[in-house]
Structures are given as structure tokens and as C-alpha cells.
Design a protein that fits this description.
Strand order of the largest sheet: 10-9-13-14-16-15
Number of strands: 33
Distance between the termini: 70 Å
Number of domains: 4
Radius of gyration: 28 Å
Strand content: 25-35%
Number of helices: 5
Shape: globular
């Protein structure tokens, strides 16, 4: 009897707590990466609140915010999507209560915090079930991982082809797409007519990025120019497949009442109609509007701008693109357009071997290519007479098989030539097969701002493979040649021979030497003066470990010490320009 009274009192106290501990909305709150936390949207303003469902009654829903407080929201002021979600939740609670024996006839069990996913997850979930994407979230962002290879044939229908082909991209881990969970209305909205000619502006439900319909020359409509395939996509300079118009074909999987994509400012993109099938009316210059049901959102249109024509929400533009965003991993230099070419066929097997059929006048050609386990790609170019030309490219190498250059420790000048292409691997030794790459560097050869003083000042991730036999350790140097001196920003040596990468902000691999500020740490680039500057990351495969005196282990000492023990070297060049 005493136990029943105690339980009854505790339950009633909890109910009273829900009714009394309530306060007004004070702005945006970001919840933890908890599946019970969802986004609640006010239909009239589009404002958002993050919180977990507690209970609903008398036309109000109680939401527990991340600081533990409970607030009451008027259900009728929320979007229709939120209202339907609450209806489903109430039905679930009712079913549980009806199947649960009450402690007392006057008090029923209240079920709270039934796990739910944020609304954005509903868009990507169908493709997550197909293993096309993976997603996760933290307090502020929803992250999507993919290889950017859609489950439909690509390239067919293109009549203006720059000879690029679809290759899986490394949009994973730290290089995943990120979308704000709580979009903020921009004080100064930016139009895609005059901005964002590089990089993605949205992400499709299947994990394929969407670029500005206007190409990077700032004037050419890619659709009207014949550069897009039957699904509105093509490949960029990094052999990265992406769309340039709204992928409305995805409605067949996500449903016509769900977004087909999300803009990188966090607002959803719907199809040609409203979710209920009604006609879209009153779009602004960005192809968006607010409705009582959804709040602010964008729509696909059959004429320019085809999808979000800019950003209603807050984004940061750096070097003509939304920053930050993932970096593509190409293997070849950009090629010129192939005049008179039309792509008429595409075949893929296990996302490892591919064949593109190209009609050039009366001649039928094929580009067959194969992904190797070491990251290289083997190409067979078949001409109209059946003659095959084979070339193999490695990640970020220049030309087939990689272009080598002479010099380096004990062999002359280890600086890249002045006309070296940016963002490509070069070498001072005959070390073909030794491959170095970094997801921190974009396909344009520029390093992401998060690895400089403009961003997080984190040391960049780095990957290498194919070191020659006999390698006992690795050393890494990040350096820059100024007009009157050579500067060193990062030095690591005695990296174990078993290692093949450094993670972002790595502090545990190898021994960190001194930078030019005489500190054993990463010194983020903080370029002074106008203009872009070229920097270099050199990776050395060594036949033994290095003995350097602590406190004197700088770049000059390293180069002297490895003069006779360097088996292979590769240098990754990149560009950085101050933005602040």
C-alpha cells in the first residue's frame, strides 16, 4: 500500500512539474546528438527550437530543451508537419497507456521522450536504407556521407563534354557534407546570379551535391549549354559527379510530400508542387517562400534558377563557394571539351569498373576505366578502329603515371618549379607508386580555411601509400618559399613505417619538430600581404629513423639528416590566400 502511494505521489509531482516549469522562448537552442531531440518550427516566422517531446494536452506541446527546462508551445502555431508528428506521438502514447495497467484509476502512465529523428533525416533515410548515404548529427549540424555515385546511369545525353568521368569521391568522416540543423535567416541574402559559381549550393537526398546552374565562368547556363545528362548532372574537374538542376526524379523514392534536397543554408528544397500537390505560388528571387505548413523552403522550377537561386539563410562565401564544404579527390588534370562528342551509353559494374560510349561524328569511341585498390585509376581509351590506349593515374598526380621531378635533399633544389600546377603531387625522385593526398585541399588546389588562421588552425589530414621496400620511417614538412627566405610551418619525423596517414589535428603520430617560431607544433598559415601564395607538404620515405637534437630539430636539420637515407619523396602543392 505504501509503495502504491509513493509511486502515485511521484507521478502526480511529475505532472505538476510539466505544467509549472515552463518559460518563454528565448531564441535558438542547440541540443545534443540525441535521437529524442527534434526541430520544432513556427509556421509564421520559420524560427526553430531544438528539444525533446515530453507530452501534449490542451492544445499545447511540452518540449524539454537541452538545458533541462520545459517549455509549452501552441500546437496550432507550429508547421503542419510538426502537428502531424504530434498526432502520431499522441496515438503512440495512447496505445501504450491502453496496454499498460494503471497504477491508480486516476493516474495513467505518461510516456515521454520516445526517440525521434530530426525532420531532415526523413529526406535522407530512404537512401540510408539503400546504403547510398550515412548520416549523423551533433549540436549544430546534420552530416551526410556519400561517394557521390547515384544509382542511375550517368553522363548519357551530354553534348558538350569536357572528357571528365564519374569517380567515387571521399565524402566521409571529416570530409562529409554538413547542413545546419537550425538555419538562420541571412541579414544580407546572397544571390547565385552573382555568387557561388564554384562548389555546391545544395545536397540531394541521395548524397549527390548540387552546384549552381551557372558554371564557373559566371554566365553559362549548364542545362542550356548541353553540358548535363538526362538526370541534370555531369562531372567536374575532379571527376566528381554532381547535379546542376533540381533532381526531381528522386521523388519516386522519397515521395512527393518530402524534400528532394537541402540547401547548404539548412532550408529544404521541394519539387514542382507543394507537398499536398497544390500549385506553388509567390516564390521569391531565390525560388523560395514561406507557408503556414512548412515555414520557409525552396522549390524546383523548370526554368532558371531551377532550385535555390541563392541563400535565404546564413552561409559563408570563400573563394566563390560556400565554406566549409567537402573536397573532391580527382586523379587527372582538367581536359578541354571534345568537339562534336555526344555521350550515348554508360555502364557500371560494382562501382569499380565503368564504360562510357561516345559518338564523335560517325565514329564510336569508348572510355573504359577501372578503380584499383591503391587508389589509382586505369583508363583504356578505345578509338573508332578498336585501338586501345592505356593510361594509369594516381590521386593528385599530374598526367598518366605521374610526372616526376628531380632535386631535393642531396639532389639540388627541392622547391617546385614556378609553373607547377597547384594541388598536384610532384616528386624529386624516381618513386612512381608513392602517392600522397589530402582531403584538406580542394580540386582547385586551395586548402580549406579550417586549416589556416582564418579557421580552426587545425593541422590538415594527410594520406600516403606505395612507399618503397625498405622504408623504416616517414618524415613530413610543410613549408613555403618567400622572396627572401624559406619558411617552415610544420615538421614531423620518425613516423612509424606502419603508418599511412595523419588525421586532422593529429598530435600522437611521430615526433613533432620545431617550426620557424621555434615551437614544436603546427603553425597555421596566416599569409600577410595581398594575393594567393603557394605552400608545399613534402613526405619523405626514409631507410631509417632520424636522430635530431631536441630543440634543434628544425627543417634545415631534418633535410641535412635525411640527405643519404631518403628512398622516396612526394610534395603536395597547394594555394592559400587570406580572407580576413
Amino acid at each position: 500500500m505504501m509503495i502504491q502511494i509513493y509511486v502515485r505521489c511521484m507521478t502526480i509531482a511529475a505532472l505538476l512539474f510539466l505544467g509549472t516549469v515552463s518559460r518563454a522562448h528565448e531564441g535558438h537552442e542547440h541540443g545534443p546528438a540525441d535521437p529524442s531531440v527534434r526541430v520544432w518550427t513556427f509556421a509564421d516566422t520559420g524560427a526553430h527550437i531544438h528539444g525533446a517531446y515530453v507530452a501534449s494536452r490542451d492544445g499545447k506541446v511540452q518540449v524539454r530543451r537541452t538545458d533541462g527546462t520545459v517549455i509549452s508551445l501552441e500546437i496550432e502555431k507550429l508547421t503542419i508537419l510538426d502537428q502531424k508528428w504530434i498526432e502520431r506521438k499522441v496515438a503512440q502514447v495512447k496505445e501504450i497507456n491502453e496496454n499498460t495497467k494503471p497504477i491508480h484509476s486516476e493516474v495513467k502512465l505518461v510516456v515521454a521522450n520516445v526517440p525521434s529523428k530530426p525532420a531532415i533525416a526523413e529526406t535522407f533515410e530512404p537512401f540510408a536504407k539503400l546504403n547510398a548515404v550515412k548520416y549523423r548529427q551533433d549540436d549544430d549540424f546534420f552530416y551526410v556521407e556519400s561517394n557521390s555515385m547515384p544509382d542511375h546511369r550517368m553522363m548519357v545525353g551530354i553534348t558538350a563534354w569536357q572528357q571528365q568521368v564519374p569517380i567515387p569521391q571521399p565524402y566521409f568522416g571529416d570530409n562529409a557534407w554538413r547542413i545546419p540543423l537550425d538555419p538562420v535567416v541571412a541579414k544580407n541574402p546572397m544571390s547565385a546570379k552573382s555568387h557561388f559559381f564554384r562548389g555546391a549550393i545544395a545536397l540531394a537526398a541521395n548524397g549527390v551535391p548540387i552546384f549552381n546552374p551557372i558554371k564557373n565562368d559566371g554566365r553559362t547556363d549548364t542545362l542550356l549549354a548541353g553540358e548535363l545528362d538526362e538526370f541534370g548532372g555531369h562531372c567536374g574537374r575532379g571527376d566528381d559527379y554532381h547535379y546542376h538542376i533540381a533532381p526531381t526524379h528522386l521523388q519516386g523514392i522519397v515521395g512527393k510530400d518530402k524534400p528532394i534536397a537541402y540547401a547548404l543554408d539548412g532550408y529544404p528544397i521541394y519539387g514542382y508542387t507543394e507537398p499536398d500537390g497544390s500549385e506553388v505560388q509567390g516564390l521569391d528571387e531565390f525560388n523560395g517562400h514561406s507557408t503556414p505548413q512548412l515555414g520557409y523552403h525552396y522549390h524546383a522550377t523548370k526554368k532558371y534558377p531551377y532550385l535555390n537561386g541563392g541563400f535565404h539563410g546564413e552561409v559563408k562565401e570563400v573563394d566563390g563557394q560556400v565554406d566549409p564544404q567537402p573536397r573532391a579527390g580527382g586523379v587527372r588534370e582538367a581536359l578541354p571539351p571534345l568537339r562534336g562528342a555526344k555521350i550515348t551509353g554508360f555502364e557500371s559494374k560494382d562501382n569499380k569498373s565503368f564504360s562510357i560510349k561516345v559518338e564523335v561524328g560517325r565514329e564510336t569511341r569508348y572510355v573504359n576505366y577501372f578503380l584499383n585498390q591503391d587508389g589509382s585509376v586505369k583508363f583504356d581509351f578505345v578509338d573508332g578502329n578498336g585501338k586501345v590506349k592505356t593510361e594509369t593515374y594516381s590521386p593528385r598526380q599530374r598526367g598518366p603515371g605521374g610526372g616526376e621531378r628531380r632535386g631535393g635533399p642531396g639532389g639540388g633544389n627541392d622547391r617546385p618549379p614556378r609553373n607547377a600546377p597547384k594541388g598536384v603531387v610532384s616528386s624529386n625522385k624516381a618513386s612512381e607508386g608513392f602517392i600522397v593526398s589530402s582531403t584538406a585541399i580542394g580540386r582547385d588546389g586551395r586548402i580549406s580555411s579550417e586549416f589556416t588562421c582564418d579557421g580552426q588552425s587545425a593541422s590538415p589530414p594527410l594520406q600516403w601509400q606505395g612507399a618503397p621496400a625498405g622504408t623504416k620511417s616517414f618524415a613530413i614538412s610543410l613549408w613555403h618559399t618567400a622572396p627572401d627566405q624559406e619558411k617552415s610551418y610544420w615538421l614531423i619525423y620518425n613516423i612509424p613505417a606502419t603508418a599511412n596517414h595523419l588525421v586532422k589535428n593529429d598530435k600522437t603520430t611521430g615526433t613533432v619538430g620545431l617550426n620557424d617560431k621555434k615551437r614544436a607544433s603546427y603553425d597555421p598559415m596566416c599569409s600577410k600581404g595581398p594575393g594567393a601564395k603557394t605552400y608545399h607538404i613534402s613526405v619523405y620515405a626514409l631507410s631509417s629513423e632520424v636522430e635530431l637534437a631536441k630543440g634543434s630539430d628544425n627543417r634545415a636539420a631534418l633535410l641535412k639528416a635525411i640527405k643519404g637515407i631518403t628512398l622516396a619523396e612526394k610534395t603536395l602543392d597547394f594555394v592559400y590566400e587570406r580572407t580576413k
